[in-house]
Automatic annotation (TrEMBL):
UniProt-annotated catalytic positions: 175 (thioimidate intermediate)
Assigned EC number: 1.7.1.7
Organism encoding this protein: Ureibacillus sinduriensis BLB-1 = JCM 15800
Gene3D superfamilies: Aldolase class I
Protein name, per record: GMP reductase
Binding site for NADP(+): 204-227
Ranges for domain IMP dehydrogenase/GMP reductase: 6-310
Length: 327
């Protein structure tokens, strides 16, 4: 792979504006047969989403993926979402008990609209076999498989039956995979996204490394249908992480799904725990993301999200922030 770059190395080039107001720009996206307000999904991590956030997101027209770290509650979760006439979107792993869980859902006719296979190294027979198992027992569910970082992996998971693949190994804020293993897309996630998207015949989710709202537009430009975000969603008042006060300032905890804290043991740890600044309500952030993306669309010279996909860009290595802080 030549010419790699990451989010902060890229600037998109504006086209002539065709709208009179940014409010005319439509940020919505069709994904898995449903329409969502934004091409954004909060990460399926324990400090990012819980059941009440999932309900809030679904009720307000946003996509969500519930995490898999309270496995015994998942069937009830699906029932609860469906009783409210909301989509059910869950995560699974690849261990033996997950196979039984999928079979149980089929027997009980509890069919989630979305199932995400959430594994660190998704280019594996373990994930391929789980995709096939889900497709055999729950053929109506839309299967998202990941995480991967190469076109070959995207093609293999798509061929196994995945309806979308999730790209990003190691670019996350609480990720230490890149440090502990030497592998991943950390530092060149945006280029990896482009590389994978070129091979994809189905939607791609860009996962990890989003640090500013402008990175959402850049992800769309380089091939993402959906963008998964952790750290930017960790600091809200409703975020499930603990709130702590340090020197009179409020913070929220944010920990990796492969952290010692999440796993309860120091085995194959590839994540860490950190604290992010407390920042008000989740809905305010989503509204701001929508407004910023509407503005991106207007700079792209269109009125729909699609217009971002074809804009020109320049690579300005590590210089776009010019020493400025983001906020
Ligand atoms: N996006 C990213 O960059 C990363 C994300 N994560 C997140 O951390 C969580 C834990 O992930 P994960 O450890 O996969 O989940 P699990 O701990 O549930 O592992 C799932 C299974 O995959 C096996 N496995 C995991 N990694 C590898 C590997 N590199 N090679 C071979 N087998 C492997 C595990 O076996 P065993 O443990 O015995 O090897 C286990 O049987 C997930 O939520 C994941 O999204 C973690 C790292 C990177
Ligand atoms: N290497 C690890 N990656 C992890 C872990 N827990 C989650 N993740 C990934 O990070 C993104 C969120 O990234 P952010 O930059 O938006 O904060 C998340 O969706 C996972 O793919 C982990 O323990 N190790």
């Amino acid at each position: 792979m030549d010419n790699v770059f990451d989010y902060e190395d890229i600037q998109l080039i504006p086209n002539k504006c065709i709208v009179n107001s940014r409010s005319e720009c439509d940020t919505s996206i069709m994904f898995g047969g449903f329409k969502f307000k934004l091409p954004v999904v909060p990460a399926n991590m324990q400090t990012i989403i819980d059941e009440s956030i999932a309900i809030n997101l679904a009720e307000n027209g946003y996509f969500y993926i519930m995490h898999r770290f309270n496995p015994e509650t998942r069937a009830e979760f699906i029932k609860n979402m469906h009783s409210r006439k909301l989509i059910a979107s869950i995560s699974v792993g690849v261990k033996e008990e997950e196979y039984t869980f999928i079979e149980q859902l089929a027997v009980e006719e509890l069919i989630p609209e979305f199932i995400t296979i959430d594994i660190a190294h998704g280019h594996s027979n373990a994930v391929i076999n789980m995709i096939k198992h889900i497709k055999q027992h729950l053929p109506q569910s839309f299967v998202i498989a990941g995480n991967v970082g190469t076109p070959e992996a995207v093609r293999e998971l798509e061929n196994a039956g995945a309806d979308a693949t999730k790209v990003g190994i190691g670019p996350g804020k609480v990720c230490i995979t890149k440090i502990k293993t030497g592998f991943g897309t950390g530092g060149w996630q945006l280029a990896a996204l482009r590389w994978c998207a070129k091979a994809a015949t189905k939607p791609i989710i860009a996962d990890g490394g989003i640090r500013t709202n402008g990175d959402i537009a850049k992800s769309v430009r380089f091939g993402a249908s959906m963008v998964m975000i952790g750290s930017l969603f960790a600091g809200h008042e409703e975020s499930p992480g603990q709130t702590v006060v340090k020197d009179g300032k409020m913070f929220k905890e944010y920990f990796g799904s492969a952290s010692e804290f999440q796993k309860g043991e120091k085995k194959n740890v590839e994540g860490k725990k950190m604290y992010v600044e407390h920042k008000g309500s989740l809905m305010d952030t989503l509204v701001e993301m929508e407004q910023d993306l509407q503005s991106s669309i207007s700079y792209a010279g269109g009125s729909k999200l699609e217009s971002i996909r074809t804009v020109d860009y320049v690579v300005v290595k590590n210089s776009i922030f010019n020493g400025d802080k983001v906020y």
